[in-house]
UniProtKB/TrEMBL annotation:
<feature type="transmembrane region" description="Helical">
    <location>
        <begin position="100"/>
        <end position="125"/>
    </location>
</feature>
<protein>
    <recommendedName>
        <fullName>DUF1385 domain-containing protein</fullName>
    </recommendedName>
</protein>
<dbReference type="Pfam" id="PF07136">
    <property type="entry name" value="DUF1385"/>
</dbReference>
<dbReference type="InterPro" id="IPR010787">
    <property type="entry name" value="DUF1385"/>
</dbReference>
<keyword id="KW-1133">Transmembrane helix</keyword>
<keyword id="KW-0812">Transmembrane</keyword>
<keyword id="KW-0472">Membrane</keyword>
<feature type="transmembrane region" description="Helical">
    <location>
        <begin position="261"/>
        <end position="277"/>
    </location>
</feature>
<feature type="transmembrane region" description="Helical">
    <location>
        <begin position="131"/>
        <end position="151"/>
    </location>
</feature>
<feature type="transmembrane region" description="Helical">
    <location>
        <begin position="234"/>
        <end position="254"/>
    </location>
</feature>
<feature type="transmembrane region" description="Helical">
    <location>
        <begin position="196"/>
        <end position="214"/>
    </location>
</feature>
Length: 306
């Protein structure tokens, strides 16, 4: 197989890694007793199954929703496996529900912190120019995001997830470069990958700053809507799918034209973010990541060897 045709991706889980290949995905989790549990499912993106849906802007939002769904389900399943959640394991159930509640709270706090609070802060400044108003909101969100990442990266459990994130990137790099999937081969690669979801987050944040600056100006001026923090918050929620869709397309283009100097500059800040969101993994974490990728590649009739 030519190296340029090799492509995989995934995400870090609780004590594990999710890996996606063309025709399926797999997750591997290291249980508390040290054993690795691997599960897999066949999967083909809807836009590949139905070519009529493979166009802008529909393909972006469909892929985004599908990826989120698989990611949430896999995160939930990894907690289930690691904490050995079943009706006979009360401690496992307790830890599992604590993880779910923490995750839900994190989403609520995230919405408040990144969407509503910046609007409330800038509102006090009484800036009349709508474009400047929204630009400042975007910059505050950007700063909040960096500070948020720095803070959570110090939490022990999050730190381990970021280490598994690094393991995922190293393993994908080894595969895409045609190496046999072994711990020794994967260790030499970087934890920073240009196709990472962190890059998608950066592109989304950067695009949102410009997009909301323009859209809010038009919406509040043309439709004569009262300019309040809550109205701005609702407006940003309504247009969030559009922001995510266009950001996905920008990420798609950045991958397609990765050698272009402008594209390299576009994705570079996303790589810098990965100094926070990825950490050097241990050998046993690489073993988990390799197990996951090898299992997912079986759907492509591959074994992970060059």
């Amino acid at each position: 197989m030519e190296n340029k045709k090799r492509k995989a991706g995934g995400q870090a889980l609780i004590e594990g890694v999710l890996m996606m290949a063309d025709n399926g995905y797999a997750l591997s989790v290291r249980k508390q007793d040290g054993t690795i549990v691997t599960e897999s499912k066949p999967f083909t993106k809807l836009v590949k199954r139905n070519k009529k849906l493979n166009f802008f802007p529909l393909r972006g939002i469909i892929t985004f929703i599908e990826t989120l769904k698989i990611g949430f389900e896999s995160l939930n399943r990894s907690a289930d496996i690691y904490y050995e959640t079943d009706t006979n394991n009360k401690n496992g159930l307790k830890n599992f529900f604590e993880t779910v509640i923490t995750f839900i709270l994190a989403i609520i706090i995230g919405l408040a912190l990144f969407l509503f609070l910046p609007i409330q802060i800038v509102q006090f400044l009484k800036i009349e120019n709508q474009f400047q108003f929204n630009l400042l909101i975007g910059l505050i969100r950007f700063i909040f995001f960096i500070v948020y990442l720095l803070i959570i990266s110090q939490i022990k459990d999050i730190k381990r997830i970021f280490m598994y994130h690094g393991a995922e990137h190293k393993t994908v790099f080894a595969y895409e470069n045609g190496d046999d999937l072994t711990v020794e081969n994967t260790k030499k690669y970087s934890t920073k990958h240009p196709r990472c979801g962190t890059s998608f987050l950066f592109i989304t944040l950067a695009f949102a700053i410009i997009f909301y600056s323009l859209v809010d100006t038009v919406v509040f001026s043309v439709f004569k809507i009262t300019n309040t923090p809550m109205n701005r918050f609702l407006n940003h929620i309504i247009f969030l799918p559009i922001v995510a869709t266009i950001s996905y397309e920008l990420l798609f283009l950045s991958e397609k034209f990765s050698k272009n100097i402008f594209i390299k500059l576009l994705i570079y800040p996303g790589l810098l973010f990965q100094y926070i969101t990825t950490k050097e993994p241990t050998d046993d974490m690489l073993e988990v990541s390799i197990a996951s990728l090898k299992e997912s590649l079986k759907f492509n009739s591959e074994d992970g060897n060059a």
